[in-house]
Design a protein that fits this description.
The chain is mainly beta. The protein has a single domain, classed as monomeric porin ompg (Porin). It has four helices and 15 strands. Strands 1-3-4-5-6-7-8-9-10-11-12-13 form a twelve-stranded antiparallel β-barrel.
Length: 394
């Protein structure tokens, strides 16, 4: 599993999600983000005043359950530990700040292309307090995030793209989210990169009085616009490494930076994630798209075979080859099996001491189960006679 983790504090979203019933994935993502600058309204990078800084560590556990073949649900949350530094104070704030619930549905599933619809609802644990004196660890807003994901399987390369929205409460602007990424896989290792961002498509309710929000971030976050900013826009780049430690445990390390934006922070982020898989369905836990690709190929082969049979295909039987070799075996044929009653009439009863002709009169091992099934139909396995080897004269 690959976790979708960025500097924007989105919750759990996996572009390489596996769809197999009764599969559970427990993922724990930990990310560190630090900033000493902002992008202003014109897109210029501006350092925070007085060498101020802001940083936050987010721990985001999520549990996903694949309920059905193409449908999964998940639940999780986020713990944020924020710290802001200015010439007067160093403010710290650690809190469980968000609960996330989500669902994803595989809308289209072809051999090399899949389309997934994802929906997530994030509920803040605490409402935002404008009189707070603690550093901010989130926006304090309810968020509704629908996303459409398109991914491809090109052998060892797995590109994907997505587009979505983020509808936020508390008067914050509505965001258009988007991303483009891919991963090269080499056995247990995967190397990839992604570029992703968001743009405000509906204005903040305080667009014409931005100082109402800026005054709060200046006071408690050292001036950083990481959270609670007016009409933010951002584009970030990330590189990552995936490593399959075992069939059930996968590890991810990643890092990136904010490339451009406006009315938002400019910083860098690093993180790591662990994914634990429990699979109560059929099959093992290895890989994701690779194993699903085999299923799709098998289904495609069946469709081709069915289509061929419907086109009036007939085998050629006039090629001079004896067709008796290809006929199905007749269970009533005496050379194969014989009815129990008929065989008992043809063969004399063996003596109590030793079976006749050196043939064992009992069936052992796996043959006994087969014989039991055949007995119910009135048949028994005809055993081959064993010839004794003559000993060579010494």
């Amino acid at each position: 599993m690959t976790l979708f983790s960025t500097a924007q504090s989105w919750a759990f979203f996996d572009p390489y999600q596996v769809y197999r019933p009764q599969r559970f994935d427990l993922a724990v993502d930990t990310q560190f983000y630090k900033t000493t600058a902002n992008f202003d309204s014109g897109g210029e990078k501006v350092d925070l005043p007085f060498e101020n800084s802001f940083q936050i560590i987010d721990v985001n556990p999520q549990l996903r359950w694949a309920m059905f073949r193409d449908f999964g649900v998940r639940i999780g949350g986020n713990v944020g530990s924020a710290e802001s530094v200015d010439p007067i104070n160093t403010r710290n704030n650690s809190t469980f700040n968000r609960i996330d619930v989500g669902a994803d549905y595989q809308l289209l599933n072809y051999e090399t292309f899949q389309t997934i619809v994802d929906f997530e609802y994030s509920l803040p644990v605490e409402k935002f307090d404008t009189a707070t004196d603690s550093s901010l660890s989130g926006n304090g807003a309810t968020e509704i995030k629908p996303t459409l994901l398109m991914r491809m399987d090109l052998g060892s390369f797995y590109p994907y793209a997505y587009v979505g929205g983020n509808f936020r409460s508390e008067g914050l602007s509505t965001l258009l989210t988007y991303g483009l990424g891919g991963e090269f896989r080499f056995s247990e290792l995967g190397l990839g990169a992604v570029v992703e961002g968001f743009s405000s498509v509906k204005d903040d309710q305080y667009t014409n009085s931005a100082t109402r929000r800026d005054a709060i971030t200046t006071r408690v976050n050292g001036g950083s616009k990481k959270f609670y900013s007016i009409n933010p826009n951002s584009l970030a780049a990330e590189v990552f490494l995936n490593f399959a430690m075992t069939e059930w445990i996968k590890f991810k390390a990643y890092g990136g930076t904010d490339v451009t934006g406006s009315n938002t922070s400019q910083g860098f982020f690093v993180g790591a994630a662990l994914n634990f898989t429990l699979d109560y369905g059929n099959g093992n836990n290895q890989d994701s798209i690779e194993e699903q690709r085999e299923v799709r190929r098998s289904q495609r082969a069946k469709k081709v075979k069915t289509k061929s049979s419907n086109n009036g295909f007939q085998e050629s039987t006039e090629d001079g080859v004896d067709q008796n070799y290809f006929k199905s075996v007749d269970p009533n044929n005496g050379d194969y099996v014989q009815p129990v009653e008929q065989q008992q009439q043809q063969q004399p009863a063996p003596s109590a001491g030793r079976p006749q002709n050196g043939t064992s009169s009992s069936v052992t091992g796996s043959d006994s189960g087969t014989q039991s099934d055949l007995d119910q139909l009135g048949y028994q396995i005809k055993l081959k006679k064993l010839k004794k080897k003559k000993k060579k004269n010494q």
